Automatic annotation (TrEMBL):
<keyword id="KW-0812">Transmembrane</keyword>
<protein>
    <recommendedName>
        <fullName>Ig-like domain-containing protein</fullName>
    </recommendedName>
</protein>
<dbReference type="InterPro" id="IPR036179">
    <property type="entry name" value="Ig-like_dom_sf"/>
</dbReference>
<feature type="transmembrane region" description="Helical">
    <location>
        <begin position="6"/>
        <end position="33"/>
    </location>
</feature>
<keyword id="KW-0472">Membrane</keyword>
<feature type="domain" description="Ig-like">
    <location>
        <begin position="43"/>
        <end position="132"/>
    </location>
</feature>
<dbReference type="InterPro" id="IPR013783">
    <property type="entry name" value="Ig-like_fold"/>
</dbReference>
<keyword id="KW-1133">Transmembrane helix</keyword>
<dbReference type="InterPro" id="IPR007110">
    <property type="entry name" value="Ig-like_dom"/>
</dbReference>
Amino acid sequence: MPCRVTTFYCILYLVINWQYLAVLSLTISNLFVPREASHEALLDCRYSLGLNETLYDVKWYKDGSEFFRCKANGSVQQFPVDGVKLYASELSQRGTCPLFLTGLSEKSSGEYLCEVSLDFTFQSVTRASKLNFVHPSIVPINIKDFIKDIKYEKNESQYSHGSTERYPSSILICLHILFLIVYE
């Protein structure tokens, strides 16, 4: 008889508390929000659903204002929020809701929160993290000084022995290309 009573109470407990048990299986397994960023930042909210759970949506908030939503059918929605400019795929994948913040500024700093909600019960879990905008440190370079300071090295394997021809080292070429990309 005690075994049946215990089983009865276990089943009764499960029936009464089914909605609380369901939320325990819904989890945000990984929230990625960089602590600091200057130009752009990748944000990602990865979640796991329990057995027989159906996703309703995943929402992103900045300081309490919703700015992005991934729906269960894969579609996404964007909402205007001050300081948030973003790029995201037109479709989201199951288990993740990534987005790419661009054009960061002081207004982009704040708390970014991910909320994952279930269908039918509408139970949800949240995780949040702060992002701080950091001013990029740009050191002005005078192009004439930059070109004048380029050192040339001799590459013996490239030329015949005794040749006086020289060319810029590959690292300096890369620096020059990087300079042109940054300052144009």
